[in-house]
Amino acid sequence: MSDAGVMFPRKPRRIRGRSIAVIVFLAMAAMFFCVPLYVLIVTSFKDMDQIREGAIFSLPIRWTWEAWRFAWFDACSGLSCEGLQQGFWNSVVILVPSLIASIAVSMITGYALAIWDIKWAGPFLFLLFLTAFVPFQIIMYPLIRLTVMMGIYGSTTAIAFVHTVLAMPVLTLIFRNFYKDIPSDIIKAAIMDSGSFWRIFVEIILPLSGNILIVVLILQITSIWNDYLVGVTFGGLGTKPMTVHLANMVTVSTGTVSYNVNMAAALLTAIPPLVIYFVLGKFFVQGIAAGAIKG
Amino acid sequence: MPRVSFEHIVKRYGAVTVLDGLNLDVEDGDFLVLLGPSGCGKSTLLNLIAGLQDVSSGRIMIGDRDVTELDPKDRGLSMVFQSYALYPTKSVEGNLRFGLAARKLPKEEADKRIQWAADLLQLQPLMRRKPSELSGGQRQRVAIGRALVKHADVLLFDEPLSNLDAKLRSEMRLEIKKLHDTLNPTIIYVTHDQIEAMTMATKIAIMQDGEIQQFGTPDDVYENPANLFVASFIGSPAMNLSPARLELKAGNATATFGDGTQLSLVGATFDHAVQAGRDIMVGMRPEHFIMDATGTADGHSMLQLPVIMVERTGSDALISLDFVGEHLFVRAEPDRAARTKTGETVSVHYPTAKLNLFDAQTGLRL
Ligand SMILES: Nc1ncnc2c1ncn2[C@@H]1O[C@H](COP(=O)(O)OP(=O)(O)OP(=O)(O)O)[C@@H](O)[C@H]1O
Ligand SMILES: [Mg+2]
């Protein structure tokens, strides 16, 4: 068998000098993230007595969930001492409408710009492109005035509105470029068959959007969940997102700093986007690489 | 009344004028093939009638309706695309149904039509599949079915067969031809494949640079090309075209070639009166030559020429002869060609009635 099968055996590939350099570099880059993360995790499981000893790299002598429990249920943020859970639910309540509104608006704008003959589409696209580079801080004050005028300032609606506005330039460009790649004959056929803006969107375009939706979903979940500035500026007292609670908890605490609780709280805040990454990460990579039409 | 008419159609892209005052009438039930070299404006014309692009000026009539300003879906047309353009996420049935749903047809009527198209094109076993699970020929059949179910007055085809291999192409050609014979819709069909044009068309329009060079039946276009462009474009192998001077010898029209060779034009047909001394082009189709005819038969001109090369093309062979320093291609039986040696001199006859004569300056048929 074997002598008949292998006619021209190939040498197994060896790792060469250059590859080693690359691996060392990547390892160092990974360390950059992993070492602080390690400290974060081990500290959150220690008790304060061990932390005061100062050996930040040592493993916990006694593993305890106490800091996590305290951060979730009892920690004080400002005057209320209900833990991070309050902020978590606020964040969820902010996330859902912000996600839906920002993606829906950008998607439909991108679809219209890519497929339909729109007057001034070119200049509009250029303007969108420019606005993608305007820092949020510059338009923050006008946006505050605007939301006050609209009567939504200090509510979840205001936060969702601002997230939608901020995400629109980049997301619209992403969707538009994605839809531009759909073969024009398919669009022509659909226009001759139906000619309806919404019908073509729902029946032809939307089913082709799976890949790009995953990508945008992950981008948006991460950016909305991790947002601090929009939440702290536009949210009311009862609608501050988790990040704002976390910041208050860490900065304003009086007396001794409970490092373990702070670390646990930081991890709790970071977990949801991480979970999304782990669940959808594979699709994210696929979605970035793939176009609208397979093969 | 013509089914479709284009009246003074002008189409510009910025400074580029693609169509400049084009007129064309398509009769009801005609199978019109638009034929022409790449970039001559065939697809543009099709997109204009479909309403996918706007005319710069001019008027398009379908039946007695002026459709120039109508939306594509209201023009009563269907189109089959080169890339098939099937909706990738829909099943075959979904593809057929999409155009009907938009028309708000009752469900039973839609089902009936889909059933009919599926039977006609043998799509029955494929109805649940997605386009990506079909072969090229099957996809093309679905695309045609999708166009047929709409019961459009006019069907448009933009190079529908050019993505298929040769065998499938000739099969599909027959199927489309059969479809036209049984259902008799008005068809406008774009291609650059001459064989498609000659076999399927009832009318051919030959285009160059956005202008229609000739419009007529396939036979007409082939036997009586209106000008040099059509003469050289239609036919494979192409027509032999040689420059000559028109002279009168003893009262008979004669073509005198560069090296003094003379060819009698007695029996050749002239559409116009012409004077002697004109520069002309003499066109001879390779398949009209007769080899080894003895003597000078009436109505034939004889040439004795040396052989440059012999080519076997499959069922036929081409002998290329040295005529005034140029190749003159003559079609021959393969076994006759096998006996022909390079360098020997052969005598060929050409029926003068089948000569194509053109004015060398204007390019127009004489
Ligand atoms: N959007 C456009 N902008 C500018 N010029 C265009 C545009 N679309 C087509 N043209 C030009 O119009 C001319 C005709 O194009 P068209 O697509 O109709 O050619 P065609 O006859 O279908 O060619 P082919 O056989 O290669 O498909 C070409 O010269 C092309 O460059
Ligand atoms: Mg074309």
Overview of the molecule:
The complex is a heterodimer of chains A (295) and B (366). With 295 residues, chain A is mostly helical. Helix content of chain A is 72%, strand content 0%. In chain A, helix 5 (85-115) runs parallel beside helix 8, helix 5 runs antiparallel to helix 11 and helix 8 runs antiparallel to helix 11 (210-226). Chain B has a six-stranded mixed sheet with strand order 6-7-8-3-9-10, sandwiched between helices. In chain B, strand 9 (203-208) and strand 10 (211-216) form a beta hairpin. In chain B, helix 2 runs parallel beside helix 4 (136-148) and helix 3 (107-120) crosses helix 4 (136-148). Chain B is elongated, with a radius of gyration of 25 Å. The two termini of chain B are 32 Å apart. Classes of the chains: A mainly alpha (295), B alpha+beta (366).
Task: Summarize it.
The complex is a heterodimer of chains A (295) and B (366). Chain A is mainly α and 295 residues long.
The CATH architecture classification of the largest domain in chain B is 3-Layer(aba) Sandwich
Overall 3D geometry of chain B? elongated
CATH C-level class of the largest domain in chain B: Alpha Beta
**SS-based class of chain A:** mainly alpha
Biggest sheet of chain B: strands, sense, closure?
6 strands, mixed
Structural category of chain B is alpha+beta
Low-confidence stretches of chain A: none
CATH homology superfamily name of the largest domain in chain B: P-loop containing nucleotide triphosphate hydrolases
Give the C-alpha Rg of chain B.
Answer: 25 Å
Strand content of chain B: 25-35%
**Annotated CATH topology of the largest domain in chain B:** Rossmann fold
Element string of chain A (H = helix, E = strand): HHHHHHHHHHHHHH
Number of domains of chain B: 2
Provide the residue-averaged pLDDT of chain B.
89
Helix content of chain A: over 70%
What's the total count of β strands of chain B? 20
Q: How is the largest sheet of chain B built, in terms of strand order? A: 6-7-8-3-9-10
Oligomer: heterodimer
